[in-house]
Amino acid sequence: MDLTYTPEQQAFRAEVRAWMEQHVPKEPLLTLEGRAGFDAHVEWERTLASGNWGMVTWPEAYGGRGLDLIRWLIFEEEYYRAGAPLRANQNGIFLLGPTVMEFGTDEQKARFLTPMAKGELMWAQAWSEPNAGSDMAAIRSRAVRDGDDYVISGQKTWSSRAAFADWSFGLFRTDADSKRHKGLSFILVPLDAPGVTIRPIRQLHGETGFAEIFFDEVRVPVANRIAGEGEGWNVAMATAGFERGLMLRSPARFQAAAKRLVDLYREHQAVAPPSAREAVIKAWAEAEAYALNTYKVASTVMAGGKIGAEASLNKIFWSELDRALHRTAMSLMGAAAELKEVGGRVNQWLEGYIFSLSGPIYAGSNEIQRNIIAERLLGLPRLGAG
Amino acid sequence: MDLTYTPEQQAFRAEVRAWMEQHVPKEPLLTLEGRAGFDAHVEWERTLASGNWGMVTWPEAYGGRGLDLIRWLIFEEEYYRAGAPLRANQNGIFLLGPTVMEFGTDEQKARFLTPMAKGELMWAQAWSEPNAGSDMAAIRSRAVRDGDDYVISGQKTWSSRAAFADWSFGLFRTDADSKRHKGLSFILVPLDAPGVTIRPIRQLHGETGFAEIFFDEVRVPVANRIAGEGEGWNVAMATAGFERGLMLRSPARFQAAAKRLVDLYREHQAVAPPSAREAVIKAWAEAEAYALNTYKVASTVMAGGKIGAEASLNKIFWSELDRALHRTAMSLMGAAAELKEVGGRVNQWLEGYIFSLSGPIYAGSNEIQRNIIAERLLGLPRLGAG
Amino acid sequence: MNFAFTDEQIELRDGVRAYLEGTHGAEVLRRLDAEGGRDPAIWRGLVEMGLTALIVPEAQGGLGLGLIEAALVAVELGRADVSEAVVDSALVAPRLIADEAQLAAIAAGELRVALAHPVNPWVADADQAGLVLGGSATGERLESADPLRRLFALERAEADTRMLDHAALIAAAQLVGAGERMLTLATDYAKDREQFGQAIGGFQAIKHHLASVAVMLEFARPVLWRAAYALDNGHERASVHVSHAKLAATDAAVQAAETAIQVHGAMGYTYEVDLHYWMKRAWALAGAWGDRAFHLRRLDDAMIGGAMAIGPDQSFETGMHHG
Amino acid sequence: MNFAFTDEQIELRDGVRAYLEGTHGAEVLRRLDAEGGRDPAIWRGLVEMGLTALIVPEAQGGLGLGLIEAALVAVELGRADVSEAVVDSALVAPRLIADEAQLAAIAAGELRVALAHPVNPWVADADQAGLVLGGSATGERLESADPLRRLFALERAEADTRMLDHAALIAAAQLVGAGERMLTLATDYAKDREQFGQAIGGFQAIKHHLASVAVMLEFARPVLWRAAYALDNGHERASVHVSHAKLAATDAAVQAAETAIQVHGAMGYTYEVDLHYWMKRAWALAGAWGDRAFHLRRLDDAMIGGAMAIGPDQSFETGMHHG
Fold first, then answer.
1. Which residues in chain D are closer than 8 Å to C205, comparing Cβ atoms?
2. Which of A218, C78, D3, D60 would bridge D104 by S-S if both were Cys, CB 3.0 to 4.6 A apart?
């Protein structure tokens, strides 16, 4: 165990810091969940790409920097320290990119990875279906083979970024007679293809970052399939593993929020409820714990270890700390908590609280994560209602 | 709605207060869970009986005062305000007594109720069996009819007060071929009968208020059965209803504890954790809410209403407030929390915390209570693992 | 001592509930949301039902009822997410006004009153008000997370404790109603929505989440009624009881909101279901008329500060009848 | 930067765990409880395993290991509920002592050291100590809820921050071990115990309770290791990191205790199962070497007070290697 940074790691931090100080927009961008804001965030992706900071963990061959996980953490720390924008390209960087690297053909890698690294291709997830929320194996959307094409019909929902993204990735049933996990394939579909209809879903905050995607006999080449026909489930499980694992929520994000919460507390100290003080300390302490644990997992992975059901521990911890952190902020804001703007600026605590409410729901609800922990880590029986 | 006491109610309060001030022991008795302490508590039951304060809600015909529920609440308030001892006779007053009144024969009423009111007969519960904790229908102990007697064999456990009590009441299987709720009878058994063996169970705090009762061909007259043969389940459900209902934990107990907690907080304020202040306020606020709700339920019952699944709401609320209250006290005690004596006196907060941990477990665990609320009050399906 | 509603009170409550269920469903909220938030027809309906006359004295054409009735109605307004400028005007203002002509105009639905107080950074529905009590608004519109609230920046206000107590009581009552509605919405959703081959309401985790909310609401209610009674009868501790009610109602409603969205899953996060209207109302009312910190401080002063006797015999005024 | 244990550290941990599993099961606790709490044979075993030599410098016959190793061992001592006077003496005192003869005697198992500090109202195992560091005990025995602790009233003590930090770290490690054991006990019980026709561990409520404890423990551990590392290397913020570790470990262990007893049901409330030994140890250690309030205050001063920089780049010392 060595919990100090090497001189090289420190030099890397300094390099990131210098670049961020020069390039991070001075004013916060509009929200990613609206058209104008999304475009501004894509612009920021291109700025990042111009400095080669878009896909820092990807191999250099695909336009990345091949950073190890420790340097990725340092990068993220500096990213959030600088208050840089959210990533419009999140689905590509952390979900599809690694999937293509692991399961894609050389042709697919060349076709998709480099444009993604340049910030030219934004991706939407297309996992859930109206009656298959957390139960992904209940998928019904079909892809029927027709020569060198698939003809896709069906409906996806809760598709993040789909309102504005260029492409989507998801599972489709390529064997019409199959059930549950079998007969599914992982297919990439351009969202401007004929037969694709996007219906934005208005969210709590009134914006529309999620959407439904309707596929009406959409024709895509078989070359858009990642891995073999009928192997979609395993690919998707690997993708979901990336998501729930190390990189879904970088700890720096919560550390930055906890630091802002401390400032908010100092500002409102005289009129704060008595429990807020301990809640603020706890928010900071938990953000730290999450960061430390990520360093620990990163060290394990770098030494050849794997992340298993521990990813579920992570998901529960960050999502519940994020909600508690923002709940505390709302209580400190008091009467002003409900206002969309405070002092002429967007009420970021209200926005953050609303966003935090999605944490325990998405990427596998926390109820499902607790089942996984109980069954896979603790070995409790799967009897009963799961 | 009239939330003021009538002059008669105020006069009654004054009467109780005067009596308590004169009779409540100046020093706390030894714990009810040990022999000497139990005897001291029985002595106190007799003192109460001497003032006719033993069974205040019972009809005058059975040695009570026939108080309505509002006066019972006033009595309890003054009882706890005076710091009077716990009730060794709890099982008799609130569980068996009402059961005998509702289901007993005249002969049984005469035989049991009057001695109970005089503090001459202490009762143990004999519900649970080793493999039937929360699942009371799994009872296996048998009562075989032999002329005018039952011959009882089997084992009961978690029998409260059994280590020191005179009699027990519980369910036994009178139809050997029956399953679950059928074929059970409610039978009273003297604990000094030949064939009865008591094995005290040592509890967390080292004392032995619970016990196992072994019945080895214990012979009791059929006249000891309450209600008809095979009707035991209904009788027991009514008894459990009394227990979970209004009278199991009188609110005054928690209000008195919350008042002491405020004093403790004032004493330790300078070194208290920041969240303790709000936790203290909350403990008091919840004790008040519990009291108010009890007045509300009492008013409903007095107007002819019934308590149904609401009893489960009650059980959860008081048991969780009691645990939180004592957890807060432990945090205020800090390093001294673990000491059995503080300043030469029993560490009542440690004892209270330990006792509070049993609240969410006994009389139907809070998990079961939440199932009842979900299914019976909210109408959620009974599918799955309950 | 009798902690039960009269038959008339239950009739009033049931009548208001039935009326609002029939006329003010979620489709009305969606329409108001799209069209700007207010509808004269809804206002007229509430006036015709007599809500504006509820607590105005009979001498001024009112029904002369008390705060128990006002709170019962406010629970129903919260349950239905009614957003018309009726709450402050009809259920609070009449207790703060002596002018007989104004009272008569309120009862008749001809005068709407807005309330200004320094603990709120806004005046609700100031633009529709013929009278702003306690201060004034600037006219600048403040945008709430709740799309059906119309808030205006406060210009100046005096700290009138009676106004605060009455308005906080009515806010608490609305929170209880909103909390109850969110529990119903989540319960209904859990009965309908299937996953892994069964209704999600059959899963113990969902059951227990919802049961916990039921517990919180059950024990917020009697605190609300004590506060209403004490304030109506001028009891010495009424302010403390109101703060207690506002806290209990806030905590129950906020917990109901977090539970309801979790039970709804991704659906709850959208405009596809109607839950969000009540969630946002709960967040808004949690801070209105004294936030948690404010009301905690009043409890704190009374209890830890020692301004008030506490203990098992202190739940109610033990003296003679007041006011 | 490498947040992983070395192979040697893992070997040490596994070795100690295996030894204690083989020699120090629950039946030993029951025997000690009945017979007065200490057994020279257990002490000799721990000495022979080398625990008393663990952090004593090699020059004085020790193994010269660091606080990571000390904390790893302390987790195992907590897991096994070891109560011999080894913790303060072997895992804390050597870092506070300069005298070479004393160090050599500790390493050899010939000298036991007790610790006196004003934040504790007692001195543990003062009667067996050849040396009381930092103050003295009166000889009066204090009775703990934990039947295996032997506490003596404090006579006088100086406030030595280094002692407090080291002892608090080791207490935190024991709490983590006790918490892990309680999770195991409850999980095993839930797999065995049947109700309503199935193992209670199949009920989602039980599963979720236990999963929540697993989460708390998982995120207490890295905080512990950072504290051990920082203290061992003389980092500037070591005291704050230790306080963080003590808090996280306390909260996880106390939650593990409350959950474990709930899962055990009435059984957990008795001496019939062994859970109570770890529960009581958790309650005791929660208050020992600084209670929650004490350690919260240190975090508070550092963070809200502003004595320490915080933020995404501040988890570790960013300067050169220390110590």
1. 204-205, 208
2. D60
